[in-house]
């Protein structure tokens, strides 16, 4: 047995530098596994361990040694990842205070207004909401007021059933926990471990009755399965569970637009009318979205109820992004790992991307990783530029990979024309090649009008550039060119199994000149 097979507690004893340990090893016939208080027989000897260390040394051919030898750049890379929740959120004080001012009502036992939060992607909505939610919960614990926050990401939990089931199970779990605590106290009282006179029960019989009631309650709270029940039943499970105790519940629905898009506004309708029926508890909703248009699809009653209070998260400007990055970089990087222009450049690039802090952090992390790979002592401006290219390319690859097949065919046609050195491609030329490609893979051919629409969509995605030019008395036409790197984009298209099957593309391009 090697030390790696030992449970972690024991491995500490296998340190041959430990003077105490060497004493033990001599005394107990070179035992390396027995802890001092544990007289189990030795399973490996120090010699075994030593010889393994040596052979590990010999076995290594230094693959990682070189990579490890450079100056470390990151002190804690996790701090730059999206999953990290920062403790400080510069430039969001106003929004955070607004949220707190509305939600403090919950700590006073009243129902806060519903809140709708919106702002572009990467403007700190989720980070701020989580920060406020943590504060609210910890303050409610401190003052022992029954206020609870439930955060739901509707991109993941995207149907009424799932939202209600998640909420129901959360409160069912909490109810059971508190029932178990009460039962433990009552059982102690029954067994004579507590003083009946000091309790609110006047007789052993009433204690007994209360125990029976609680046990029945506990059995009643059955977990909701993740599928299979009628939605009505899930709703009433949630309703009963939340109303079991007095409390104020704040439900945060992040990416609420995804829920509405996928499943309509029933969930919001049901949640927003609950308060009129709840007896002990109150529910308040905080919706978060980066797309305000979703409110157009809401029932007017839901819309006005949800938007009782609105908080806008404006995009960050370059200076604000700089502050945000500086705070995070302090923890993430080793001292002096960044040259002076790194953070301002990341901030400037991300400010162009509609002030997206996520983008700024991605850039900074990627630049650090590239510097690490180059084994330089620090991150330089060039790493940021390379990181920007890499992130942009990753985005393109992802967009192209997930295009519908017809759009892929249109894009492939444009690429084939560009590869032939054709400039200022027009829609008719694209359409001719596109038709041949469709025939080749035996798929439906769309009308030229539809293909023109698909070209406009590719333009909006930033993959092609299509400008309308006037041809005088010949009318107007579109001039199309590729806005993304040709080879990489072609490679992504060809990785699609059907497009990859198209064999010799040359003849198709000839079609342009034939037509
Ligand atoms: N003011 C800030 N200070 C520090 N970090 C921030 C700040 N604002 C945003 N961030 C960070 O930027 C990233 C994106 O923020 P967040 O996830 O809150 O954006 P969002 O507004 O919810 O975007 P989306 O609409 O795409 O969900 C996160 O890593 C977050 O920690
Ligand atoms: Mg978010």
Topology:
Layout: H1 8-11, H2 19-27, H3 46-59, H4 65-69, H5 93-107, E1 115-119, H6 125-142, E2 147-153, H7 160-190, H8 204-220, H9 231-243, E3 247-254, H10 256-263, H11 266-272, E4 281-289, H12 300-306, E5 309-313, H13 318-332, H14 342-352, H15 357-374, H16 381-401, H17 405-419, H18 427-441, H19 448-460, E6 464-470, E7 476-482, H20 486-494, H21 497-500, H22 506-514
Parallel strand pairs: 1-4, 1-5, 2-3, 3-4
Antiparallel strand pairs: 6-7
Bound molecules: adenosine-5'-triphosphate and magnesium ion.
List keywords for this structure.
515 residues; alpha/beta; Rossmann fold; Helicase, Ruva Protein, domain 3; 4 domains; 5-stranded parallel β-sheet; 22 helices; 7 strands; 9% strand; disordered N terminus; binds adenosine-5'-triphosphate; binds magnesium ion
Can you walk through the features of this model?
It is a single chain. The chain has about 525 residues and is α/β, with parallel strands linked by helices. The chain folds into 4 domains: about 5-60, no CATH class; about 95-315, P-loop containing nucleotide triphosphate hydrolases (Rossmann fold); about 335-400, Helicase, Ruva Protein, domain 3, CATH 1.10.8; about 405-515, Winged helix-like DNA-binding domain superfamily/Winged helix DNA-binding domain (Arc Repressor Mutant, subunit A). Helices cover about 55% and strands about 10% of the residues. The chain has 22 helices and 7 strands. β6 and β7 (about 475-480) form a beta hairpin. The longest helix is centred in the middle third of the chain and has 31 residues, at about 160-190. It binds adenosine-5'-triphosphate and magnesium ion. Adenosine-5'-triphosphate (ATP) binds near residues 124, 125, 358 and 361.
